């Protein structure tokens, strides 16, 4: 029903952002940050809190004209640095992961805005859109946890 009533770009955006960007990355990152790095639980929680800072300050940057574009550009530079360099110092790794988290936050806000707009246009499909977003995220997490189990053995 959603694919027929809504534009294909919304459905594919939900799959990409909720399923791959948030779901799979959450599944992959949980195993690597909590078990592979051999951190104490309190250390893992501190670092997870630091990485989530962009979600807190995002609303400040979105109010600036063109701020989200600058935000995304910075994030797109930082994330590959973390992915390609395996010998990063702790501060550099946290900075790169914060950039990745910031990119996720901007994408999340964007798809949430599209979902809100479509819910206003098609009120009868609002609950279906919410369910689709949740299922997509859950499936992405399951795939991420499954893949990480093979990668980090």
Automatic annotation (TrEMBL):
**What is the protein's name according to its record?**
Major facilitator superfamily (MFS) profile domain-containing protein
- Please state the protein's primary subcellular location: membrane
Q: Which domain of life is it from?
A: Eukaryota
- Keyword match Membrane: yes
Record membrane topology: Multi-pass membrane protein
Per UniProt, the keywords (alphabetical) are: Membrane, Transmembrane, Transmembrane helix, Transport
Task: Please name one Pfam family that this protein belongs to.
Answer: BT1
Source organism (scientific name): Solanum lycopersicum (Tomato)
Transmembrane region(s): 6-24, 44-62, 68-85
This entry carries the following GO cellular component terms, namely: membrane
Asked if the record carries the keyword Transmembrane helix, the reply is yes
User: Where does the UniProt annotation locate this protein?
Assistant: Membrane
């Amino acid at each position: 029903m959603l694919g027929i009533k809504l534009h294909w770009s919304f459905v594919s955006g939900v799959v990409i952002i909720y399923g791959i960007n948030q779901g799979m990355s959450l599944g992959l990152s949980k195993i690597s940050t909590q078990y592979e790095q051999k951190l104490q639980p309190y250390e893992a929680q501190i670092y997870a809190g630091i990485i989530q800072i962009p979600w807190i300050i995002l609303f400040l940057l979105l109010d600036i004209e063109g701020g989200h574009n600058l935000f995304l550009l910075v994030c797109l530079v930082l994330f590959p640095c973390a992915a390609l360099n395996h010998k990063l110092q702790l501060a550099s790794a946290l900075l790169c992961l914060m950039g990745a988290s910031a990119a996720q936050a901007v994408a999340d806000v964007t798809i949430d805005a599209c979902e809100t707009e479509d819910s206003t246009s098609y009120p009868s499909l609002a609950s279906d859109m919410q369910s689709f977003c949740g299922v997509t995220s859950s499936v992405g997490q399951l795939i991420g946890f499954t893949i990480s189990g093979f990668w980090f053995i």
